Amino acid sequence: MMELQFKRHRRLRQSANMRALVRETVLHKEDFIYPLFIVEGDNIKNEVSSMPGVFQLSMDRLKEEMDEIVKLGLKSVILFGVPVEKDAEGTGAYHNHGIVQQATRFIKGQYPDIVVVADTCLCEYTDHGHCGVIEGNKVLNDPSLDLLAKTAVSQAEAGADIIAPSNMMDGFVAAIRRGLDEAGFIDVPIMSYAVKYSSSFYGPFRDAADSTPQFGDRKTYQMDPANRLEALREAQSDMEEGADFLIVKPALSYLDIIRDVRNEFNAPVVAYNVSGEYSMVKAAALNGWIDEKAVVMEKLTSMKRAGADLIITYFAKDAARWLSE
């Protein structure tokens, strides 16, 4: 009888310790950036109805949240502001007393080692819900750049460690880099939402940030989900303009794009595990349909395996707990 010739790959899967020994992709708490939604007012801790376990927090409730974050071993947060008053130009985004600026000063004063990433956009602050200045029903690109640069400088003045512009205007990285440099913040890096798709997975975030457009959609500035090569063009432009990190958003349905960006560029790549991806898992878990821990950790591992160095995720606190078990 002729002897069969084949490889014995199972040799490296025989025990938990053996599998751990050869594991190629490992998650660490330092990989995660936890989003926080800061609202104006007092004694507010409102659970976002479409995002179980995620809360809108007023400044006086921020300390208890930050204490938990530090205790869990997380190292970085990204801040989103939810103001009471909004206007056509989103002036609350760049006021010195804006809600993100207040939260940044508090966190850096009380928890100086935490890395604060400031989301730099106008949509939470405009009464029309778009990410720039409008004229009629058109979002104007170039006039929006000045306001975005002002917002970035204001956030840096408040102590933000990283500026994360999410607006997808053409030239936004160049405008913000120039604004930061001219204001003396040459060492503040830019974490660009370089590849941001016009995705259906953002719905719950818009509940949390109160940022739903009041007319139309964002398809003239966010990318068509069908496009791949466009992502590389966008990322290339941002790198040339001075970006220090490249975000791909969303993550789970765009793992191929994360890998493309990782292969093409040497900058740190950030996957944004967005609200819809979070809410679907939470809903299935609450119905008992899935093992939440197993699914979340598999999903986060897939993002890192695809090439992400960092992951912005609403599961950061849960994942940190599970990694400590």
Short overview:
By secondary structure, the protein is of the alpha/beta class. It has helices spanning about 15-20, 60-70, 100-110, 140-160, 170-180, 205-210, 230-240, 255-265, 275-285, 290-305, 315-325, and strands at about 30-40, 45, 55-60, 75-80, 115-120, 135, 140, 160-165, 190-195, 245-250, 270-275, 310-315. It catalyses: 2 5-aminolevulinate = porphobilinogen + 2 H2O + H(+).
Q: How does this structure look, described?
A:
- It is built from eleven helices and twelve strands.
- The protein has a single domain (26-324), classed as Aldolase class I (TIM Barrel, Alpha-Beta Barrel).
- The protein is an alpha/beta fold.
- A hairpin with a 2-residue loop joins strand 6 (133-135) and strand 7.
- Strands 1, 2, 3, 4, 5, 8, 9, 10, 11 and 12 form a ten-stranded mixed β-sheet that branches. Strands 6-7 form a two-stranded antiparallel ribbon.
- It has helices spanning 16-21, 62-72, 99-110, 142-158, 172-182, 203-209, 229-241, 255-264, 275-286, 292-306, 316-324; strands at residues 32-39, 45-47, 55-58, 76-82, 115-120, 133-135, 138-140, 162-165, 191-196, 245-249, 269-273, 310-313.
- The longest helix is centred in the middle third of the chain and has 17 residues, at 142-158.
Tell me the layout of helices and strands.
Blueprint (H helix, E strand, L loop, with lengths): L15 H6 L10 E8 L5 E3 L7 E4 L3 H11 L3 E7 L16 H12 L4 E6 L12 E3 L2 E3 L1 H17 L3 E4 L6 H11 L8 E6 L6 H7 L19 H13 L3 E5 L5 H10 L4 E5 L1 H12 L5 H15 L3 E4 L2 H9 L1
Parallel strand pairs: 1-3, 1-4, 1-12, 4-5, 5-8, 9-10, 10-11, 11-12
Antiparallel strand pairs: 2-3, 6-7
Organism: Bacillus aerolatus
GO molecular function: porphobilinogen synthase activity; zinc ion binding
GO cellular component, one term: cytosol
